[in-house]
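Action item from last week, closing it out:
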Amino acid sequence: MDSGFLITSFVTLFVIIDPIGLTPLFIALTQGMPPEQQRKVAIRAVLVSGGILALFALSGEAVLGFIGISMPAFRIAGGILLFLTALDMLFERRTKRREDRQEEEEHEDPSVFPLSIPLIAGPGSIATVILLTGEQAGFMGFAAVMGVVASVLLILLVLCLTSGALARLLGKTGVTVVTRLLGMLLAALSVQFVLDGLRDFGFAAS
């Protein structure tokens, strides 16, 4: 397995899922809960999200083929979607939208909604796992992508379990700086997805 693919996959999924940006929202959604319940919410959210992403990684390309969408077309569309996400991150619209969604929905257990869906396993992360498994076909490609998904979700779980200390350490300014840096990386990666799709159609040189 190409190490460059693994690194690119990790960076893309890390930026899309954005564990650092989700941590303050996890704190807000579980505010007032005892530590034991917070741990259960974090673990349940990560497990549900992993299951959803595994499902789309396994069957996403087959679903696309069934409805007549080619992988290059989906790669271009996914790249555009990721670029829009990057713009949201750079201008802080993504954080504001997540906070608004959090305020609109009040649930006793936020692990499935809104944490798993749509904050962790949202359109961006689902599109990304389909794109990545499309680039590396076969069981090894699926295993590699799921390994990357598991590592990103593990980081998210650790951050959620240590969310109180992390929030105090980074502060609001620290979270903003990290989010914008990740947004720049995502913008470059999304352009690469579009170029790869155009190349597969024969519109761009390799």
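Closing note: The chain is about 85% helix and 0% strand.
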